[in-house]
Amino acid sequence: MAMLAEAVAAEDVGMGRLCRVLPHWEATPISVYAITETRLLPAKTQRFIEFLRQRLADSG
């Protein structure tokens, strides 16, 4: 059993590789934080945080 975002599992559910066990149950939303040692971040770290922010917003 796993708790997955609907967008992550949609293709596998559609192809019959996964099935929803508790169809009426939904997880409680949680907050996610990116904690860094400093505000001066390398560009790749900034891009990664922006990527996460976008992906998490899209799945909500």
Task: Explain the overall architecture.
- With 60 residues, this protein is mostly helical.
- It has one domain (6-59).
- Helices cover 43% and strands 0% of the residues.
- It has two helices and no strands.
- The model has no long low-confidence stretch (mean pLDDT 90).
Uncertain residue segments: none
Strand content: under 5%
| Residues in helix, % | 40-55%
Instruction: Characterize the main sheet.
Output: none
Put simply, the count of helices is 2
User: Mean of the pLDDT scores?
Assistant: 90
Lay out the secondary structure:
Layout: H1 6-14, H2 43-59
Core attributes:
60 residues; mainly alpha; 43% helix; elongated
In brief, what are we looking at here?
By secondary structure, the chain is an all-alpha fold.
